[in-house]
Design goal:
Strand content: 5-15%
Structural class: alpha+beta
Shape: elongated
CATH architecture of the largest domain: Roll
Radius of gyration: 23 Å
CATH class of the largest domain: Alpha Beta
Number of strands: 5
Strand order of the largest sheet: 1-2-3
CATH topology of the largest domain: CBS-domain
């Protein structure tokens, strides 16, 4: 369950709460007589659902969630090459690798924004607004820069055995949307994003 989400009775997210009507309709579909009240049914369901969330949080690992192969760039690639790779793949961030395939850092759209506007615009339109007001292109300083200069480093990475619960906690505490999965030598294995975590909520990997 995503960090900070409101919860109702039994620890269920509010958007998963059962109404009494839901329960009565479900009970009508059971064959035979069921000696249980809607309140008891709801309590059992909430406990079972909470148990299922706990089980998934401990049993699903980064290696089960990660996307592979991963679009990556080299430390010496120009920012033009990085931008092209990201645009072609339709991703907002990529890991930066050394010649041995080890993850050195991650470069994202936010890193581009910081390089384009060191005064602190936090959005693309903020950069556009400053560019138009100054009458100069803020991309010019990036032309000679390399991925190693713009990346966020060291990368916040995961081991393949990191659990779903650990990944969610890491994303929440570090305020990140993605993390590379690496082996014991720091070599890239895959990538886990918030979209992958949302897939587990929908039962895609249950």
């Amino acid at each position: 369950m995503p960090s900070g989400q409101d919860q109702g009775p039994g620890g269920l997210p509010l958007d998963y709460q059962l109404s009494e009507h839901d329960i009565l309709e479900a009970m009508k579909g059971l064959s035979g007589y069921l000696d249980i009240t809607p309140g008891d049914f709801k309590e059992v369901f909430a406990l079972a659902y909470g148990q299922a969330l706990t089980r998934l949080g401990l049993s699903v690992k980064a290696q089960d969630l990660m996307t592979t192969p991963v679009v990556s760039v080299g430390a010496g690639d120009s920012l033009a090459q990085v931008a092209h790779a990201m645009a072609q793949a339709g991703v907002s961030g990529v890991p930066v690798l050394d010649e041995e395939g080890r993850v050195l850092g991650v470069i994202s759209e936010k890193d581009f924004l910081k390089r384009m506007d060191p005064l602190g615009s936090q959005s693309f339109m903020g950069v556009v607004a400053r560019c138009l007001s100054q009458g100069a292109c803020l991309l010019a300083p990036l032309l000679e820069e390399r991925a190693a200069q713009a990346m966020s480093a060291p990368a916040v990475s995961l081991g393949p055995q990191a659990t779903l619960a650990e990944i969610r906690a890491l994303f929440a505490s570090r305020g990140i949307n993605r993390a590379p999965v690496v082996d014991d030598q720091g070599r890239l294995l895959g990538m886990v994003s918030r979209a992958d975590l949302l897939g587990t909520r929908a039962g895609r990997r249950a």
